[in-house]
Amino acid sequence: xxxxxxxxxxxxxxxxxxxxxxxxxxxxxxxxxxxxxxxxxxxxxxxxxxxxxxxxxxxxxxxxxxxxxxxxxxxxxxxxxxxxxxxxxxxxxxxxxxxxxxxxxxxxxxxxxxxxxxxxxxxxxxxxxxxxxxxxxxxxxxxxxxxxxxxxxxxxxxxxxxxxxxxxxxxxxxxxxxxxxxxxxxxxxxxxxxxxxxxxxxxxxxxxxxxxxxxxxxxxxxxxxxxxxxxxxxxxxxxxxxxxxxxxxxxxxxxxxxxxxxxxxxxxxxxxxxxxxxxxxxxxxxxxxxxxxxxxxxxxxxxxxxxxxxxxxxxxxxxxxxxxxxxxxxxxxxxxxxxxxxxxxxxxxxxxxxxxxxxxxxxxxxxxxxxxxxxxxxxxxxxxxxxx
Amino acid sequence: xxxxxxxxxxxxxxxxxxxxxxxxxxxxxxxxxxxxxxxxxxxxxxxxxxxxxxxxxxxxxxxxxxxxxxxxxxxxxxxxxxxxxxxxxxxxxxxxxxxxxxxxxxxxxxxxxxxxxxxxxxxxxxxxxxxxxxxxxxxxxxxxxxxxxxxxxxxxxxxxxxxxxxxxxxxxxxxxxxxxxxxxxxxxxxxxxxxxxxxxxxxxxxxxxxxxxxxxxxxxxxxxxxxxxxxxxxxxxxxxxxxxxxxxxxxxxxxxxxxxxxxxxxxxxxxxxxxxxxxxxxxxxxxxxxxxxxxxxxxxxxxxxxxxxxxxxxxxxxxxxxxxxxxxxxxxxxxxxxxxxxxxxxxxxxxxxxxxxxxxxxxxxxxxxxxxxxxxxxxxxxxxxxxxxxxxxxxxxxxxxxxxxxxxxxxxxxxxxxxxxxxxxxxxxxxxxxxxxxxxxxxxxxxxxxxx
Lengths: 388, 452
Ligand SMILES: Cc1cc2nc3c(=O)[nH]c(=O)nc-3n(C[C@H](O)[C@H](O)[C@H](O)COP(=O)(O)OP(=O)(O)OC[C@H]3O[C@@H](n4cnc5c(N)ncnc54)[C@H](O)[C@@H]3O)c2cc1C
Ligand code: SF4
Ligand code: SF4
Fold this sequence. Notes:
Chain B: This is D-lactate dehydrogenase (cytochrome). The complex is a heterodimer of chains A (about 400) and B (about 450). The model of chain A has no long low-confidence stretch (mean pLDDT about 95). With about 400 residues, chain A is of the alpha/beta class. Helices cover about 45% and strands about 5% of the residues of chain A. In chain A, the strands form 2 sheets. Chain A has a 4-stranded parallel beta sheet. A 4-stranded parallel beta sheet of chain A has the order 6-5-7-8, with helices on both faces. With about 450 residues, chain B is an alpha+beta fold. Helices cover about 30% and strands about 25% of the residues of chain B. Chain B has an 8-stranded antiparallel beta sheet with strand order 15-12-14-13-17-18-16-19. In chain B, strands 5-6-10-8-9 form a 5-stranded antiparallel beta sheet. In chain B, strands 1-2-4-3 form a 4-stranded mixed beta sheet, covered by helices on one side. The interface of A and B includes residues 67 and 86 of A.
């Protein structure tokens, strides 16, 4: 059965399957698409995925759990958008998302995706944890509820629920407090930012959570938001305006860089001299922000920032985007992108792998453990490296 | 469980084997106009030993094995014409040794040209290999298996002439080495024995190349592309003979195309110049333009089209996106340089008949010992009629190559049959004997170079 309403049906055949999109900027390897790096079958490459979607849309191929997994293995890292030389390249990720839209419409989803979406629907987070526990991350902190302060600090589902990300969210709150920033949090009133929900193709649910957050923000008079996660940063900058939510949005590294310039934050000495930084896709390739996190790291006394071979526009994604940090379609192998990345970080000789995203934090810390590298490589959120 | 599937998973691991419709679909097609050919299995081995075990198993089971690199030939050469197992070799991508002083690199056959270019750029910027104009995902092994040529074809010839040694898994599973590596020495020379012609240009039908020692050449500090333009195509052979006599260019490509309109019916010669100093560059420019090309300018029949353009490595091709159609395929041939005018004229006629804007190109090989001349036909992948037009144009072009006395390079099966129908019967019988001896069960990429 052909899918007449597929949004890109007049364009998707334009992919030549030439594979430029597999590479980083310096052409050093074919493994810069995290899904292809994990499976190394053409079906998992960008071109393979687009051709399979086209075959499904045309009715040449039936839906299967495996097809669903291939499509959902795209971590929306934007490497292909960056590297494809053809003029449709800006639409590649949206071509995949549009296929997911069709799968959602037809109720044809890989099991972990269905569970993810149901958890967001029922509990406002992908983990299936109770909504009323959303404020627990700050239980031992004196963080004020949002009440007309200058900034709303939006911690997001990861910072609120994931035990490792909670530590980093707490470090961020303490740092912002020490800097004297006027900010508050929403606690239980926050709900999932909807970024991954939209990328998983569930537009209706994405709109619902977006509207819920927008109403809360507007009711409370929020004007400026600082996000803990780059995924929330993308949601507020790129998705919420569609639903009438327009705010001044900062990622916390951008704010920290500014506070440092003003002298409001004076980080103590470094935990380690050599630090390498993993660019999060939703800050880097999606929003072209490569400077701020590096400025923060370089302002820490004693830090030597060393770059991994693939960095900035060419960074290898940890494999956690588009819900993959939870649905985990790219895990379970030495070729899992997070494990490849952990090895690359270790190869720099750095003692700390700094991240600026709670998904990267959990993905890469797990990977460092599985690789047996934890004795020589600590994974730290930037917020943890400068906490007072 | 299916016996072959289970054997494959034991050899390469479950993650790297599939017999599911999604992978079979993906590997049933390539980028060109060939109709789909479905494999029964896809496997992605990591080592020559794994390849060898698969090939031995395939002999027992009498199932076909089709090696696949980047899958970029456009001509359907890695499509499984008789089903069986497609071996995706791209996980075999290690760079094993870079010997700067002896100027070679030992590399696994599934490594991409992009990876090698980047590796040299980083670790030995004064060295380069001859990079084909194909997308950088094309592999070292796949390019050798079809006698590819790259951007050093003018000074050094075909890529397959640039070998110091090979490791090959024979169709019966033995792992063999050829060149100095075969006697345990470093991989620095091919000579004196044996002849690698057994494996080059055979589309993987005589064995699977697993490691290659590739010669490297000086890579100069500065590089630029200059373009010389003439209106009269009959001048092109003269200009190319003049330029190859002076020997100052690194790459010489004559081309003409209907689109963009400024190029229509004009003939451009892209001249790559490289040098280690500004003086060297200037000297080469003077030899080329002042000494060899100025007379055409004086006579009013030639002009400088562009100077000092950046010459990117790897090249980025957007040929497939004509009219947003997502496809093109070309017939490549090896032709005498003197045939350029006729190749162009007759090719443009074929294009006009099929309502496809013409694109032709001739890359000089050696000191004008020949050229790889290609005729490209763009098509719209979403329009069956347009695909059929391109397919017909390709077949007519294969016939044209024969008529003009050329030989088809990387021929699709149609072209292979044309070539073999004209081949000296004794040569044909020898090809058959070689094939039968090496591959008694006929499992290696069957349908390719198959003598009836
Ligand atoms: C835009 C464009 C431009 C191109 N320009 C050039 C050019 O300038 N020069 C040029 O030479 N080519 C060019 N090509 C053609 C082709 O892409 C290249 O020759 C490419 O290098 C082929 O390598 P591959 O890895 O893609 O081979 P594949 O297509 O994967 O394989 C080619 C053949 O070799 C067999 N094979 C693959 N790997 C092995 C192995 N390890 N051992 C034995 N057999 C094997 C396959 O079964 C198949 O028959 C171009 C193609 C495109 C699309
Ligand atoms: S997405 Fe672009 S670069 Fe990638 S295979 Fe398709 S056309 Fe080529
Ligand atoms: S967005 Fe990233 S994961 Fe998805 S196809 Fe492109 S490169 Fe691969």
